[in-house]
Amino acid sequence: MPHTYRLVFDCPDQVGIITRVGKIITKNGGWISQATHHSDEESNRFFSRFEIKADSLPFGVKELESKLEAISEELNMNLRVVDSEIPKRVVMMASKGSHCLTDLLDRWNSGDLKCDIACVISNHEDMRGLSEHYGIPYHYVPIEKDNKQKGFDEVERLVGEANPDCVVLARYMQIIPQALCEQYVNRLINIHHSFLPSFIGGKPYHQASRRGVKLIGATSHYVTEQLDEGPIIEQDVVRVNHSDSTEDLVRLGKDVEKTVLARGVRAHLEDRILVYGNKTVVFK
């Protein structure tokens, strides 16, 4: 992947935003290799993502950010300028199901996901061998039914020590407490084994089987204190029929889950997601 600087922003919509931002880049010799935009008529808000060849500019990220400061203030932008060469730090969390974690670690090991995995945290010992196979520190933190706060205090400490850019819940089957949700807003990525907003909560495949659905799916989303209601990043489905048992739905769903989670994590790592309210703009 070429070395680029990513310029990601949203602001109130008006005429000339692209021209004015582009002029700041090009007058300094910047080569814009990608530019994607979205104008949301309902909110009258503009969303944009630029990729600029790093070697085309005579300065680095900090100076580029400085040159954009005036227009950012004038247009009331939420602005990020990111160096693609600096990998994001990620904490993975999982319980007993291995399919999502296995897939993410394999993608990371092959270079398909560019990031630094600080550690894996789990409320079971089942994933230790997998994590240690890849040389990643593993922390077993039990979450006791009658005293969950004790375990989550330790989780919060470990996550804080890792100082991650995002935390990925790769089938971590515990409800994340409000304190962590608030501390890592739009940085906690979950995979829900349902096509949200259908079948929120536990055992969604069982709910789907009882309802006799013809499509099942999975949803990656940012975690909020409202269970399974955070901003949606990615979704996909697979067709099923009356002859499929609940066990068939679980088996078929696993393939969708790991793919959808990987897409969501990749989009976050590549700064392709902009959140506004409870919705996302995800640039391809």
The level of helicity is 25-40%
Average of pLDDT: 94
3D shape: globular
CATH class of the largest domain: Alpha Beta
Describe this structure in words.
The chain is of the alpha/beta class and 284 residues long. The chain has two domains: 4-83, Alpha-Beta Plaits; 88-282, Formyl transferase, N-terminal domain (Rossmann fold, 3-Layer(aba) Sandwich), CATH 3.40.50.170. The protein has nine helices and 13 strands. The protein has helices spanning 17-26, 61-67, 69-74, 99-109, 128-133, 148-162, 178-183, 204-211, 246-269, and strands at residues 4-12, 32-40, 45-53, 78-83, 88-94, 115-122, 138-140, 166-169, 188-192, 215-222, 232-239, 273-276, 279-282. A seven-stranded mixed β-sheet has the order 7-6-5-8-9-10-11, with helices on both faces. A four-stranded antiparallel β-sheet has the order 2-3-1-4, with helices on one face. α4 (99-109) packs parallel to α9 and α8 crosses α9.
